[in-house]
Amino acid sequence: MKKLAFFLILYSNFTFTQSAKLDKQEVKVLAQIWGKLGLTEKRRWDFEEDPCSGQGEWQFSVRCDCSFNKNSTCRVTAIYIISENVSTALPVEFTKLLKLEVLDVGQNYLKGTIPSEWATMRLITLTLEDNRLSGPFPTTLTSITSLQYLNIRGNDFSGLIPEHISKLNNLERLFLSSNKFRGLSVAIENLTNLNDLRISDNNFTGKIPSFISRWTQITKLELLGSSFEGPIPSSISLLTQLDNLKISDLKVQRSTFPSVEKMTELRTLILRNCLIHGTIPNYIGNLRHLHVLYMFPIL
């Protein structure tokens, strides 16, 4: 009897979830977004099929939560529009999806910048990588203080990383690589929850900032081909949680080999074209997790 009762409970919950449908207003909003992005012309997006059903194209593009109210009305919490060859501007209408937490529109041809109306959104994850977005760092993003993951790599953003970025104090992962940024505001040092920072392939000027030592929780740091000048700051030795450190193509001033002895979790160490002189320290052989080691040349 206990097994039968357990089965009936599971069946009841399953049926309840399956009968829940997306809020009618949000269905209209999705139709507006899909229309503005030109998606309705690319495939047969069936708006007669409930977007929360997990059927057809919807199973790859929309995630819903049906537990917000007693009437079991679903709300959109995640949208994935990846590699769809979209070449429009970003629609303002995303702001009408009040429960949206995850938005991934990477690997398209989106142009323009971030709509100012997006400042009201409460996203946790935003992926805009590999598009054609341009202009200065979009300050609109600094108002989305709920963000924990922000990826705008592979666009045409330029100029300075503004002071307002310090408002994103919940950020854990920040990917700014492959843009045309030329300066980092000191305010970025206040993002002390960062555990993954990637700012490779930019046009930064000056030396690697010494304030990176404040990111004591960081596990991944990538500074490949970002036009920084040497030397590698000695304060990098304080980042003892690093498991991945990549620095390359430093200019002007030579560096001594950085002290990584206390980075006991280090798995990948790349120091390519960093004007390093001297000898490789013996303790490198004692880093038991180290799998990738690339250092060239040593002067």
TrEMBL record:
Main subcellular localisation: membrane
Subcellular location: Membrane
SUPFAM superfamilies: L domain-like (SSF52058)
Record keywords: Kinase, Leucine-rich repeat, Repeat, Serine/threonine-protein kinase, Signal, Transferase
InterPro entries assigned: Leu-rich_rpt, LRR_dom_sf, LRR_Rcpt-Like_S/T_Kinase
Membrane topology: Single-pass type I membrane protein
One Pfam family it belongs to: LRR_1
Example of a GO cellular component annotation carried by this entry: membrane
EC number(s) stated in the UniProt entry for this protein: 2.7.11.1
Gene Ontology molecular function, alphabetical: protein serine/threonine kinase activity
Annotated PANTHER family: LEUCINE-RICH REPEAT-CONTAINING PROTEIN DDB_G0281931-RELATED, PROTEIN KINASE DOMAIN-CONTAINING PROTEIN
Protein name: Non-specific serine/threonine protein kinase
The organism's taxonomic lineage, starting at the top: Eukaryota, Viridiplantae, Streptophyta, Embryophyta, Tracheophyta
